[in-house]
## 1
Amino acid sequence: MRMGSSWRWQLTRAIRLALRWCWVCCPRRASKGGGFVKWWIYCKLLLKSLYFNSQNNSDTLLDCVFEPVYWIVDNVTCWFGVVFVSLVILLTTSVVLIVYLFVLPAILSNYSWHWVIWHLVCGHWLLTMVVFHYYKATTTSPGHPPKAKVVIPSVSFCKKCIIPKPARTHHCSICNTCVLKMDHHCPWLNNCVGHFNHRYFFSFCLYMTLGCIYCSISSKDLFLDAYGTIEVRKDNCRRPPFRPPPPSDTFSVTTAHKCVIFLWVLTSSVAVALGGLTLWHFILISRGETSVERHINPQREQKTVGDRKGRHSALCASAKAF
Ligand SMILES: [Zn+2]
Ligand SMILES: [Zn+2]
């Protein structure tokens, strides 16, 4: 299009809009109170014509409003993944060290030989399983759809990766890639949980829960002893002035008490929290669902039922017409 004709077309459009505006606001045409209503409807129409999209709904609006929040969460989770993995390694190492330094010597000195063998075998087996499954869950790729131009059975198209998505594939906004049979993005693994590492994730949760329960039960007597000693020491601090002070514990004894209390509180808390998560994933696995599908399936079922009802009522109406 030439510049002259474009300029004329823009001018014509502006004049037509101005004339239409005058027609709406014309006092002769506007009846009493009706002018404002027409003017309001016209303004609403103009505004809607600027933003109208047949795909718009409340979900799209919420997504747009929370887009900056999603961006911050995605990026922070991506960076904090390294911190979370370091935290898991640090806490697990500290628990193992405390067990070797304080709990195992108490077991060796207080239990009979067959209980000692049971503790040694059970404890080391749980430790091996936790380390192995955590390593595999962290390092195994969850599985991605092929990016080469191959014909694969797909049900939809990823707008971000520009590739066809096979069934049960979802886009992870933190990894910025599509993941096969995606369950969720786990910050404690700094990895997505998907088709190829789901079993490692679940096994890690299961063995970590069992390991925490084992540590919690094994160190219960030591914890009660350490807690009681600390409480007695607090009472002695509030003694009457005429009583002599009790002999103070050595630094190693005080450290041992604090370490045992830390071990018991940490393992008991993790056992409860991770046990709940493991149970939830066990239920999902028994239902053949992932966490993502558990979230989206009820919405899809509602939509399917609504579509079915709509088709049924349309068929009934056409049958009555005939
Ligand atoms: Zn994608
Ligand atoms: Zn991910």
Note: The pocket of zinc ion (ligand 2) is lined by residues 172, 174-175, 185, 192 (CB under 6 Å).
## 2
Amino acid sequence: RELLTGDALWALSVAVAVFLLLVDLMHRRQRWAARYPPGPLPLPGLGNLLQIDFQNMPSSFQKVLNVVPVLLRIPGLPGRVFPAQKAFMAMVDELLEEHRMTWDPAQPPRDLPDAFLVEVEKAKGNPESSFNDENLRVMVLDLFTAGMVTTSTTMAWAPLLMILHPDVQRHVQQEIDEVIGQVRQPEMGDQARMPFTMAVIHEVQRFGDIIPLGMPHMTSCDVEVQGFFIPKGTTLITNLSSVLKDETVWEKPLRFLDAQGHFVKREAFMPFSAGRRVCLGEPLARMELFLFFTCLLQRFSFSVPPGQARPSDRGVFGTIVTPSPYQLCAEPR
Ligand code: HEM
């Protein structure tokens, strides 16, 4: 008899492992089919591992870390796999250090980190409290990442849609001229008298649909939804796009105006998601979008550069959906 060694043994082990996984998958399918909603069955670990891209190992390694996060405890590894995050964190640390140096507890807080530092002081000696230096870093990082790219990407969609629809741009400018004029800057109070502009900003967000799959959530207990059993610990992905782009809801062109030209809120408008974990920055984002958009159209008219073809309105799907790169002409009004 001959013993299997080296390469032969390795190949056999892999074949047996794949065979067992397939048998297991078939069993699970049979058992679960009746209980789970339609769609891929939950085998995230295997699914992610199979996506390894040998041409781009750093990105593949990020996926592996997603599945086996305990590896992140290996000293020095997170910084190597996520260099951009490391650089960003260093910037946040610098900002917070400057804050600590100039912070005066006797004065009212200047901003959120100051208010957090007050709580950190109060919580000193209480290991149970979540007010600590590490959470302050993570909170600032969260707000930067959640708040910057989202608003700026929406603002990248707005001029694109204006150059593709110059009649809409003119209508917005007309409303700006009537309500705000050319002398003073726009204020939030102007919103109430600018239904058309409001409708356009909402349509930019609906059309841009920048976070089509929302943020993943996880069930904290077993739940049943419309007869489907979803066990505790399942990752759920909300398909915001299916609502924002639902043709049965968004049939007419002026989607946020009623017959009298008044702005109307629509239930299916949910670029900020919905429910208890709806975007925390929504009120701030709405202010930013209104003020930036009206300021820009008050001062400039945007158009496709002479001699260039109409740019595409198709989005590029990444972490969030950005417009395809485009150029525009900005003419002072
Ligand atoms: C146009 C701009 C924005 C859009 C489209 C947007 C969209 C979203 C969406 C879809 C979520 C996921 C909600 C869910 O888990 O179901 C979210 C979460 C969040 N957003 Fe925004 N966001 C925007 C701007 C902002 C701004 C300006 C900030 C803060 C300065 C911000 C802070 C956050 C935070 C902290 C969360 C997590 C909330 C939680 O899990 O409780 N966002 N956002």
Note: Residues 142-143, 146-147, 150-151, 154, 210-211, 214-215, 238, 271-273, 277-281, 284-285 surround protoporphyrin IX containing FE (CB under 6 Å).
